[in-house]
UniProtKB/TrEMBL annotation:
Residues 12-72 form the HTH tetR-type domain. Keywords: DNA-binding, Transcription, Transcription regulation. GO terms for molecular function: DNA binding. InterPro entries: DNA-bd_HTH_TetR-type_CS, Homeodomain-like_sf, HTH_TetR, Tet_transcr_reg_TetR-rel_C_sf, TetR_C. Residues 35-54 bind DNA. This is Transcriptional regulator, TetR family.
């Protein structure tokens, strides 16, 4: 079998290339401004290949949101913030990790599903729902550690693990918007710093750790 090329990719390879192109180009240009031609050019495939895999651009948008969820889930599942024994340390290490991966070009660290949601929340409900599944699905991965930290520290408050997990994503997405508005990634990192202080305060820790965001022993 000949080695697949951009001009003649194997079936399935063209689909992955298009999804990866969507991941990058849509984060740079936005969903509406990204054309099928843009995606095909970036992926190195023909329009025929595009429409073989996706009936419409909206269908590509749904698939791109699902692909984003799958690939980022793998990234976060293997991240080092899961290593601490203490659940609160794991939550704080997650926030450290999120801050640490903010860097490079704006499109490289901002969120595909957040970008698409802002554009199509009213006009393309199928894409919106796929984006919501990605955002809320990721938030849900934090809930067990937050709940365990609440139980361990005897926190009895109206807020829930689910609501705090959602709040982390609201702050992250808001930080990305500020970074896009200014081209300044420091504003996104600043938002995470404030989130870290907030979480530490909820659990009765000093809001300004001496050396790291993990709790003192």
């Amino acid at each position: 079998m000949p080695r697949p090329t951009k001009q003649s990719p194997e079936r399935g390879d063209a689909r992955t290339r298009l999804l990866e192109a969507a991941r990058d180009v849509i984060r740079q240009k936005g969903f509406a401004a990204t054309s099928v031609d843009d995606l095909c050019q970036s992926a190195g495939v023909t329009k025929g290949a595009f429409f073989h895999h996706f009936k419409t651009k909206d269908a590509l948008g749904v698939a791109a949101a699902n692909y984003w969820a799958e690939t980022t889930s793998a990234l976060f599942a293997g991240a080092p913030y899961h290593k601490p024994d203490d659940p609160l340390d794991r939550v704080l290490a997650y926030l450290d990790f999120r801050k640490g991966i903010i860097g490079g070009e704006t499109f490289e660290y901002t969120c595909l599903v957040g970008t698409m949601t802002q554009e199509v929340h009213d006009s393309a409900p199928a894409i919106r729902d796929a984006c919501a599944a990605s955002i809320f699905g990721h938030a849900a991965t934090l809930e067990a550690d937050i709940e365990a930290a609440r139980a361990q520290r005897g926190i009895d408050a109206e807020w829930t693990a689910e609501s705090l997990a959602r709040h982390t994503q609201a702050v992250l997405q808001g930080g990305f918007i500020l970074a896009k508005a200014t081209g300044d990634s420091d504003l996104a990192r600043e938002s995470v710093d404030h989130l870290i202080r907030y979480v530490r305060g909820l659990f009765g820790l000093d809001v300004e750790p001496q050396t790291s965001t993990t709790r003192e022993n």
